[in-house]
Automatic annotation (TrEMBL), chains A, B:
The keyword Ligase does not apply. This is Uncharacterized protein. GO terms for molecular function: 2-alkenal reductase [NAD(P)H] activity. The keyword Lipid biosynthesis does not apply. Residues 18-58 form the Oxidoreductase N-terminal domain. Residues 1-17 form the signal peptide. Gene3D superfamilies: Medium-chain alcohol dehydrogenases, catalytic domain (3.90.180.10), NAD(P)-binding Rossmann-like Domain (3.40.50.720). Residues 112-245 form the Alcohol dehydrogenase-like C-terminal domain. Keywords: Oxidoreductase, Signal.
């Protein structure tokens, strides 16, 4: 049994049966435990934590103990130190196979994962352009998060032309969060031996019929590697990830932002807001006070 | 300068300017040479050999010397010992990452490359199903080429249902020669962590607008790896390939067939025949007698 402090709003892992609480990633304190790895008082993060004040968790294999230190906000374990951070890290490094000088494009760049991918890419000397859905987000990407450039995809009636403007020599790595028309335009602009890390397709989740992709033949002609990624398969490497990311956080070399709303009742609006692009950074719902 | 003995009919490498000979893969004898690696009388195979009786070759980096032995037909160097053989070998092993027991699906299975992929897969203990475009080809796949099963895609109005019949537990490796609707149906039937080796998309080459693919989200949800392949990038490993394939040929463990037409004038019909699925095995045009 855990008490929920924070739940996060994300998409792929949301499971909701009618009359059951939605399940997602969260941070919680254990109030009782019959499992030897967890004891009363432990702080944990993980998935299968419900949108509720108290949760009964029967899948402890998806829970991680938090060795909390005062200089790291607990909420970071819903984001940069949790699932989104690991998705950005393993998706970018394992599937993207980046090297210095690579040209990297990140869609949905002002979301929790995109922000981190862009910064990881800059840390190793890539050229990084992100797209987002408002003028404000574009400014933030360029000024606060260190992207080399950014554009508002809603203002581009021709995504292919937009990508050619920012990547006249093409794209080496595309970190895909969007799907649909964006992927089609990207395929036209990938470089030979480019890599596409498929980590999300938010534009497709609510469609009855998925949008079609027309330019897949580029994968053949340009010898592109496209690969789907599920962070859950990397959880056994959590400590490796912490060793990489914690020093950067402590040295202030990674900028991280959250959009925290208070109270379980604000959850539905926060969830729906993701689809209209309301949030910048990780959307978090605070359920109880620590 | 080389005299052309055989030219092959294939698709991706055909280059034809009006009033210039079509260029493809061929086997030839050198009649004159200013390059120290090739001397008069040498037999060679390679690309950029024209559909013509005599050819001037200025790109010797794409020519391989043939150390001909009497028990191997020269024409094999247009197929199993040349580009199609290497495409099957490196596409299947490098991109497919096969292991014993994997379920392998090969489209265009009665073509030069598909026939070899199916046999390579059987050699390492995979379950292999191929599709082709006629009853006769399906019979050949099952009886002569050792496929576990085969079907005529033209008789299936629902490709998804057909694949579910042959792969009730899904597909681990898809060797893609076709594209379009077939790829869409395959995506629905891939297994978790499946691999798709894109080596050709013959259904798409003559379309003004490529067909669209609707089920790409499967790549994300099933963590599929899809990769385009170009054999030219493996030519530096030609001797490794010969070490693998020659013993199997000599021991009769690989069945190989060719469809050889006589005379340069038969070339156009042979080329067009590929698109209607006329040939079984490698389509070769014999231009001159050895």
């Amino acid at each position: 049994m855990v008490i929920i402090l924070l739940v996060t709003v994300n998409l792929l892992t949301l499971v909701g049966d009618i009359e059951q609480p939605i399940v997602g990633y969260g941070v919680a304190r254990v109030v009782d435990s019959r499992h030897s790895d967890f004891k009363k008082g432990d702080l944990v993060w993980g998935r299968t934590i419900g949108w509720e004040e108290y949760s009964l968790i029967t899948t402890p294999e998806y829970l991680f103990k938090i060795n909390h230190t005062d200089d790291i906000p607990l909420s970071y374990y819903t984001g940069i130190l949790g699932m989104p951070g690991m998705t950005a890290y393993f998706g970018f490094f394992d599937i993207g196979s980046p090297k210095e000088g690579d040209r990297v494009y990140v869609s949905s760049a002002s979301g929790a994962i995109g922000l981190l991918v862009g910064q990881f890419a800059k840390l190793i000397g890539c050229y990084v352009v992100g797209s987002a859905g408002s003028k404000e987000k574009v400014v933030l990407l360029k000024t606060k998060f260190g992207f080399d450039d950014a554009f508002n995809y809603k203002e581009e009636h021709d995504l292919d032309a937009a990508l050619k403007r920012y990547f006249p020599e093409g794209i080496d790595i595309y970190f895909e969060n969007v799907g649909g028309k964006m992927l089609d335009a990207v395929l036209l602009n990938m470089r030979h031996h480019g890599r596409i890390a498929l980590c999300g397709m938010i534009s497709q989740y609510n469609l009855e019929q998925p949008e079609s992709v027309h330019n897949l033949i580029a994968v053949l002609f340009k010898q592109i590697r496209m690969e789907g990624f599920a962070v859950a398969e990397c959880y056994d490497q959590y400590s490796k990830f912490l060793d990489f990311v914690l020093p950067y956080i402590k040295e202030g070399k990674i900028v991280y932002v959250e959009d925290i709303t208070e109270g379980l009742e604000s959850g539905p609006a926060a969830l729906i807001g993701l689809f209209s692009g309301r949030n910048v950074g990780k959307q978090v719902v605070k359920v109880a006070q620590e």
